[in-house]
Amino acid sequence: MDPEAPAEAQIHAFREAVYAEYRERGRRLPWRETRDPWAILVSELMLQQTQAARVVPKYEEWLRRWPDPAALAAASVADALAAWSGLGYNRRALALKAAAAIIEYEHAGAVPEDSAVLRALPGVGAYTAGAVRAFAFGRPDVFLETNIRAALLHWFFPGREGVRDRELLPAAALVLDASDPRTWYYALMDYGAALKRLAPNPSRRSAHHVAQSRFEGSLRQARGAVVRLLSSEGPAEAERIHELCGMERERVAGALAALVAEGAVEYAGSLARIRES
Fold first, then answer.
1. Alpha carbon 8 to chain centroid distance?
2. Which residues are catalytic?
3. How many other CB atoms are found less than 10 A from the CB of residue 78?
4. Is 0.70 topped by the overall pTM?
5. Series of mean pLDDT values for 10-residue runs along the chain (277 residues)
């Protein structure tokens, strides 16, 4: 971006481009049809590092089973992990379950609106808190995620590499349509996603861009396989898990150690099992 802030005409042109794309090709997604803070919180944790198409069926199933924090707080860890299977990063399911308990017992079952209180919930960082406030409560918070970065980099930082969030955040604040932050952010994310399809991904020029690691052969893949096996077969020794998963002993051992550290798995003697509570 130029050393000076973008001119009003540039901001207006940017907003027009964003809203024009949204009017033409805005995505219809189930979490965009609600203002229920719990449903939006669920969607935001599910969408972390996971494509929307994979999230939709899991989101809908999750809310049928646990339509409010009280229902999830009362569920078992095993049920939550089984329902999460296929989304990856199981620690997000554990964080959501822990957040549900805090919301139920410390906030009378209502997802808090206050930003600092939201950020104190497990699994909720600056982006997720801002998204919940914008989409559920209509609050004009300034936040970034990969598609927002792509849009801002494309328009205001052409040719720049290694752009840091401390430069992007003021740009995001200047272009924010504070009169309707909910619609604005949906439109801005869709615009950034569209740019990635038309040209080399602009968000790669962000200093904070991290390419997702390869799934095949990864620890993530092994963790998911172990969770699925323990959810379906019940407690098992490491050697039995190795046999049923068809993975190297070292990968099984690494996956089990990671799951224990995350709190998803515990040992009863020599048997590994999904944590009961």
1. 33
2. 44
3. 18
4. yes
5. 68 96 96 98 94 95 98 95 89 94 97 98 96 98 95 89 89 96 98 84 64 63 78 80 78 82 81 79
